[in-house]
Write a structure and sequence with these properties.
There is one protein chain. By secondary structure, this protein is of the alpha+beta class. Helices cover about 35% and strands about 30% of the residues. The protein has three domains: about 5-20 and about 395-505, no CATH class; about 65-105 and about 295-390, Immunoglobulin-like; about 110-290, 3-Layer(aba) Sandwich (Rossmann fold), CATH 3.40.50.410. It has helices at about 5-20, 55-60, 130-145, 175-180, 190-205, 230-240, 255-265, 280-290, 395-415, 420-445, 450-480, 490-500, 500-505; strands at about 25, 30, 35-40, 45, 65-70, 75-80, 85, 90-100, 115-120, 150-155, 160-165, 210-215, 245-250, 270-275, 295-305, 310-315, 320, 325-335, 335-345, 350-365, 370-385. A six-stranded mixed sheet has the order 7-21-20-15-18-17. Helix 6 runs parallel beside helix 7 (about 255-265), helix 9 (about 395-415) packs parallel to helix 11 (about 450-480) and helix 9 packs antiparallel against helix 12 (about 490-500).
Length: about 500
């Protein structure tokens, strides 16, 4: 039975207040919810993003102690949503942190890699899909540096180790490549079996390496761990090993929820590949990220001032114990940028300085071969003059909008998958309107140097809504009947395209 319009509007409101895209949930005392050039085997490849991040364009644009910037190999910027709050009443504000790896660190990025490639070899991978997967893995191993370690696991109903952890050198690279030639496709799909075997292999690898699991799946997990919470726990286990899991969904019949939960919990990325011929590009991107890693085990610790409480942590795993919030960021490659946004409740107080939080970032610096650390304090001003109370900071507004967009796409996916195209369209339409309002507010308050990038940030979100609505509509128009649209190729493809955007909007 379709939900009523009123109920759908209520659900949209709930989603856009929680804004957590399958967020990590509390467990006990710990709550869990510049161009870059890298040399890959003698070839040069470009990666990264724009010359300056949005946060860098806003740097120094805050008031008083409501902003700070600190760091070296990793640079952290902190910012309050409202530099000036109302005195004599309770206030809500935001704490925004942006951490990016400095491009200047690229020359010193020499940490060895410990990589596990996990390939789906169930029956649905037969033929061209398996050939493309093997070709992508082959290219990756060819470009690993001498001294890097690689293992290859295949999974169907059970697992098979095709290549145990092997430290690559001039004498054994061809031997490692030959291990890929015997992989065939048959049987069912135990994704968790392959993942757990890969984690065991990584644990036997060399200490001090940058560890990653690259997991490929083209189908629904039909044996072993099957649910989102189970895959989230596997991701947390990988994160505890300082290992990110990058998951790749091939074609349209995999479960995007479990793969996204796995990657999000481990500080990895999730990819959707409609055409298996796109696999080499993703493998190349992951290798580029690995060989330019400059920091590992990065963690932010936020010490809240007396009376300040957390209402919400957006889009990231975290732990809270008393007035301390810990957010694991994992590893950083040159050009990486990661953010976290917290919604805070600030109790009533007298006019003057109001400490909000002290923030400390620490990481293992792979360039300087030592522990790195930086810190800063965030202090708001309380004023009885309503005219002095700050509107929401433009950078924080932009980041908040990204979370809202991700949550709206997730909700629209759920509605469409349940056969309720009308509610999915309504979610996209109402969310598009809210994002346009945020766009106008942010543009009016952003510094001139950041105006173009702010515009681009919001346009990307609006384009995502347009694409989702168009894709859902095409699926319904081409299906034998509208209720069959979610199970059609077009419908599944659009759901997975939407999920593929969550990393970009939430991180």
């Amino acid at each position: 039975m379709k939900l009523s319009t009123a109920m759908m509007l209520s659900l949209v409101g709930m989603a856009l207040s929680s804004v957590s895209v399958w967020a990590l949930a509390p467990t006990g005392a710990a709550a869990t919810p510049s161009p870059v050039t890298a040399v890959l085997g003698g070839a040069t490849a470009s990666g990264g993003g724009d010359a300056q991040t949005l946060a860098q364009l806003f740097k120094g644009g805050g008031a008083g102690e409501a902003t700070f910037s600190a760091g070296s190999t990793l640079m952290m910027q902190g910012r309050l949503g409202h530099p000036v709050l109302g005195a004599g009443r309770e206030n809500e504000t935001y704490l925004f942190l942006d951490v990016d790896a400095q491009a200047e660190a690229a020359a010193g990025a020499q940490a060895p890699v410990n990589l596990a490639i996990v390939l789906d070899r169930s029956g649905s991978m037969q033929g061209q899909r398996m050939q493309n997967a093997i070709a992508a893995a082959t290219g990756m191993i060819r470009r690993l540096r001498d001294g890097d370690t690689v293992s290859v696991v295949g999974y169907n109903t059970s697992t098979q180790v095709f290549l145990p952890p092997t430290r690559i050198d001039g004498s054994n690279r061809d031997l490692a490549l030959s291990a890929l030639r015997g992989i065939d496709a048959q049987g069912n799909t135990c994704v968790s079996c392959g993942l757990e075997t890969a984690m065991d292999l990584l644990a036997r690898g060399p200490q001090g390496s940058v560890q990653r699991i690259l997991l490929l799946s083209d189908g629904e997990a039909n044996t072993g761990v099957r649910d989102v919470e189970g895959f989230r726990r596997l991701g947390e286990r990988a994160r505890g090993m300082e290992t990110a899991v990058s998951s790749i969904g091939v074609d349209v019949d995999y479960n995007e929820k479990v793969l996204f939960a796995l990657s999000q919990a481990s500080n990895g990325r999730h990819y959707f590949v409609e055409d298996p011929s796109g696999l080499p590009r993703i493998f190349d991107d992951e290798l580029r990220s690995l060989v330019t890693t400059v920091a590992s085990n990065a963690t932010v610790e936020i010490q809240l001032a007396a009376g300040v409480t957390v209402e919400q942590v957006f889009d990231r795993a975290f732990e809270q114990r008393g007035d301390r919030v810990t957010v694991p960021f994992g590893s950083f490659s040159v050009g990486d940028e990661k953010t976290v946004l917290l919604r805070l409740r600030v109790p009533a107080g007298d006019p003057g300085d109001r400490p909000i939080a002290s923030v400390r970032l620490h990481w293992q610096d792979l360039v300087l071969s030592k522990e790195g650390t930086c810190e800063g304090n965030l202090v708001a001003q309380l004023s009885r003059d309503a005219a002095q109370v700050s509107p929401l900071d433009a950078l924080v507004e932009t980041r908040l909008a990204r979370s809202e967009t991700a949550a709206a796409l997730a909700l629209a996916n759920e509605q469409f998958a349940a056969g309720d195209l009308s509610s999915a369209r309504q979610t996209l339409s109402s969310s598009r309107g809210r994002i346009r309002n945020r766009q106008a507010e942010a543009a009016a308050r952003a510094p001139a140097v950041a105006a173009q990038k702010v515009e681009s940030e919001f346009q990307t979100q609006l384009d995502a809504f347009d694409d989702a609505e168009r894709g859902f509509g095409n699926a319904a128009a081409n299906a034998p009947e509208p209720t069959a649209a979610p199970d059609s190729f077009d419908g599944k493809r659009q759901i997975r395209k939407n999920a593929d955007r969550f990393d970009d909007f939430g991180l």
